[in-house]
Amino acid sequence: MKRVVLTLALILFSTSVFPCLIFFFSTGGHVIIGNHEDWTARDARVRFIPANGKLLGTVVFDFESEGLIQGGMNTAGFFFDGTATPFVPLDFSGKEDFKGKDFWLTLLQTSSTVEEAVAFIKKYKVPDLERVHLLFADRSGKSVIVGAYDGALTFTWRDKPFQVLTNFNIVDPEYGGELPCPRFATANKILSGQDPMKHVKTILAETTQGELTVYSNLYDLTTQTVEVFYLGDFSKSLTFNLHDELKKGAHGIMLDILEKK
Known about the structure:
Elements: H1 8-11, E1 21-27, E2 30-38, E3 44-49, E4 58-63, E5 71-74, E6 78-84, H2 103-110, H3 114-123, E7 132-138, E8 143-149, E9 152-157, E10 162-165, H4 182-191, H5 200-207, E11 213-220, E12 225-230, E13 233-241, H6 242-246, E14 251-254
Antiparallel strand pairs: 1-2, 1-10, 2-11, 3-4, 3-14, 4-5, 5-6, 6-7, 7-8, 8-9, 11-12, 12-13
């Protein structure tokens, strides 16, 4: 990622130090998400959380030492993740305080579509959004980048077959001095070509930050699968089907298992 749920440590660093990336495209009946999580921790893990009552089953990624969800997908085919951006103060007048334990997990467990997630996030005070922007996507092929500018939330809806976000403010690229980076241009160029499905790993490989990229993911929201790579090594991976994993009950897997493959 990208940091969707900010740790206090992230607040102390420049966004350029942790240059995460997310991309989305829809082609041939498949909705694909790719992302990098750039960070200094090495205890990354994937967790599977079964449905509970009205709460959807989910796969989420975090760091064991932090326990803060960075992003994930649910059984309705909804996805979210985010990247750090320059600080934008937000006006939370009229917004509710979130009373639950984990805002981002609750959003993932209760949102079946992009529209539902947008409605959820508009309702509450979300200080994280002063320092991150998010990609919401669902299996219908809808996607939107949720960010902040000029004191208010912004919603940049997809207007072409793909969307990309890195660390600059998508509404005003010059804001905060975090200008569009080569990774953004690289991903856009490949996605603008023919049959991007054949080149998804190329996008990841050409935008990685080496071992600073702790893990990289490829989600297929249509088939409910996620392929995971570790430390910028795209020669080996783990692939999970969400529904199959949820049948095993709640469990987690440390991603450094890939170093032993």
